Amino acid sequence: MAAEAVGERRSAGHRLADLFHGRPRLQVAALLAGPAGWLVIGYLGSLGVLLIAGFWSVDPLSGEVVRGLGLENFKTLIDEPVYRTIVGRTVLIAALVTITDALLAFPIAFYMAKLASRRVKAILVVAVLVPLWSSYLVKALSWRTMLSNGGVIDWALQPFGLHGPGFGNTAVWLVMSYLWLPYMILPIFAGLERIPNSLISASEDLGASPFTTFRRVILPLSFPAVVAGSIFTFALTLGDYITPRLVSNNQFIGNVIFNNISNNLPLASALALVPIVVMIAYLMVARKLGAFEHI
Prior knowledge:
mainly alpha, MetI-like fold, single chain
């Protein structure tokens, strides 16, 4: 009897093995079923609830959430100048951070990919990755200390008769440019490494100047990597609320969402859809520019 039971169990396993044998698509589907299900339920499901909550409202007397569909929250975001100002300020800072990081990251990534020796390249890669290992709050608070009155920046500029920017939009731009710089360096570094050195040598052999080689060969081939890095910097800046809270008194999208979660959840949900819509549009542009060609 025991031998028969073992035979039945083994035959069931064999039947299951036979089901997957020679069917690579079925194997991949079974392997990804769990993570894909979690993604649909945990991520896309929460976005669906967020979208629905944006159409709810708050009872003015009781303060309770009224689960009825309406467009009042979106009308408020469009009609009230303060919300338009906040969205414009956030998008502007995100764009400035992205441009700043691209300008800073490109020469660093180019040196790492094309000029540095193998040992120096390894050291620089580690140097770029190390800041990502430290706490976000530690870095943001360190910048708050440096930007405060009498801080390190004021102390360094005092001999020249200058002073630091203090707290405000400039401080947010500086801190976020520092925080997200590694996310721009790494994609550009990977994109530059894929450019064959023979193309650069061929351009030089044909008499092109270094600037022409950069403009006609290096930049077009590495531009998708720059756009890919900009997705990180732009998206991370767009949704951040901790740094603006620490180094600025101005309101950003993340701050307004955070402040309204407890007392006006529908308005916070409606406002949270703004960066999602902005990022969808940004990703569509990035796709047209070839940012996903090597993913």
